[in-house]
Amino acid sequence: MRMNRYMRQLEAIRLAAQEQEEALLKSIRTDLLIPFCDRVGAKFTAGMGTWMFRRGESTQHSFEHDGPFWGMSKMLYVLLHAESAYCNNDLGSLMEDYTPASYKEPKDV
After folding, report:
1. Which of 100, 92, 86 is nearest to 10 (CA)?
2. Is residue 20 assigned to a domain?
3. 86 is in which domain, residue-wise?
4. Mean pLDDT value across residues 23-44
5. 19 part of a folded domain
6. Span 13-34, mean pLDDT?
7. pLDDT one-digit tens code per residue, 69-80
């Protein structure tokens, strides 16, 4: 009986952390990611434990850099790579995709 109580408490803690982190992700996306993508004309895609930016023929994956690229702020770079509080992924991989209105898909060669 005690075990069930502790497991319910643990699940409540996890759920609270997840909800707080999801709110933080929305703020990071709105305040930092979207303005960056709009400024450089890059599409952001995330999922399956990774994320990337695409601009023209150039694709920048989460694992390819030791620092910011395309004039990205250090803050955005660090936050995209920060570890999630409730799952084994970085925050960037949990972020919702974004495609700016100015983005043009590259033409097949």
Report:
1. 86
2. yes
3. 2-94
4. 96
5. yes
6. 95
7. 899 999 999 999
Model confidence band, residue 109 (pLDDT cutoffs 50, 70, 90): very low
What single-letter amino acid sits at 69?
F
Q: What is the reported pTM?
A: 0.85
Return the structure tokens found at 37.
């993508």
d(CA 86, CA 63): 21
Q: Which among 108, 61, 99 is positioned nearest to 80, based on CA atoms?
A: 61
Q: What is the rounded distance in angstroms from the CA atom of residue 25 to the CA atom of residue 13?
A: 18
Query: Residue-wise over 3-32: b if at least 16 C-beta within 10 A, else e?
Result: eeeeeeeeeeeeeeeeeebeeebeebbeeb
**Is 43 within the bounds of a domain?**
yes
Q: Is residue 66 part of a domain?
A: yes
